[in-house]
């Protein structure tokens, strides 16, 4: 068994899943996302959290985590060896490869490098506008689990947030481990729009590896190496104590971060067998230890650990102290019966009119034929950065946006906003105030991570291969084009890309290579 040692950080690359999608799958995916739309940043809205609350626990009983293990669908990955996958699985981008670790009879599965934790338990996010309303509600449901059980807060990215996660429907399910700097991708593609899988990927972003990668895992499970897909053995390696931190928890078979029994199976037989009769790989909820470890890692208040949190929720719900008064009513006058959301007809077809009549009466009265003359909304801010936006003059500059999302800060509570204005706002991709952010912020870990990565990579490369690579400008890895497209040529992974993906990143070393790349 190989133990990998790093001084600063670890990337768990849970195999970027390149799914070969047929036309039938494309049509099926339209329920969840539409990649034909021009991608732009959006964020969850109160209506998404309202829909999430209507889904219920029964919706996840038949969840299937095959998307986490679809490594057999790689594109051009025959170059990816066990060592290559391990290099990625232990440097930062964690794309579903499950990790957790123990030391001194204590468990480990959290990042040891505190620079990878999100300050103040606050994780800014943005998401692709390609997701359907259903997918948005499932993502909201997953985020709400963190809100209910931990002090982690998922907040819409503001212009001041340089570091944030970007949720998008890339190929398969993957995420970085912890905060890596700048914009970091969390992919929720085909097969990933399930509450448990999303919670799993977000827990990677919070700073956790897979449970069965812990140093002490062989005391608790048996790995049946002969049943693993060829080339995928690297997905089952263990990590040295220096990579992860001990959080004082026992081995957790019930963790949402544990592989299932047939993960990466090449013959349909189990690849992981617990040493006691117990199920593994559940994707329904956090385990008690999951909650404990998240709260321990982020030093959450004691009243939060192991219980539902009572602090501010990530979802913009109205609490008891915000009872409706004449001063807190935000009126929306309806000239006629109209839908507020653009996807109402779709929701009606899927049975939301009868399944969630109260919610649909507010947002989709026309599609459900549930019209009324007047709707009322509590006057509250729907974004955590409303006060800052108000100070920057957006109450005037972005009047419609601020009416919908920052009424309280702008003192719009007694004003009237017509339904068609809200409908236009909610159905367009202009529902985010953004400005260009500079890339001048230096990455403190870039040089050190690059050095650690090069040492590992160079130790596994054939000398003749290096010599050949130096003479021509070419890509040495099968995923270079994909990595380039998700932004790895710049930032934290630029050193790795400079050595292995010169052609894709157009960073050839000499003039001859430059010409070759052209």
Structure report:
There is one protein chain. This protein has 518 residues and is an alpha/beta fold. Among the domains are: 3-297, Collagenase (Catalytic Domain), CATH 3.40.390; 461-517, no CATH class. The chain contains 20 helices and 14 strands. Helix 4 (133-149) links the parallel strand 4 (122-128) and strand 5 (153-156). Helix 2 packs across helix 4, helix 4 packs across helix 5 and helix 15 packs parallel to helix 18 (494-500). The protein is globular and about 65 Å long. The two termini are 43 Å apart. Mean pLDDT is 68; it is low at 1-23, 70-108, 303-335, 415-471 and 509-518. Disulfide bonds join 337-371, 379-413.
Attribute tags:
two-stranded parallel sheet; single chain; zinc; Collagenase (Catalytic Domain); disordered C terminus
Number of helices: 20
Low-confidence stretches: 1-23, 70-108, 303-335, 415-471, 509-518
- Within CATH, the superfamily of one domain carries the name Collagenase (Catalytic Domain)
- The number of E-state strands comes to 14
**Fraction in beta strands:** 5-15%
Rounded to the nearest angstrom, the radius of gyration is: 24 Å
> What class would the helix/strand composition place it in?
alpha/beta
- Average per-residue pLDDT, rounded, comes to 68
The general outline is globular
In angstroms, what separates the terminal alpha carbons? Answer: 43 Å
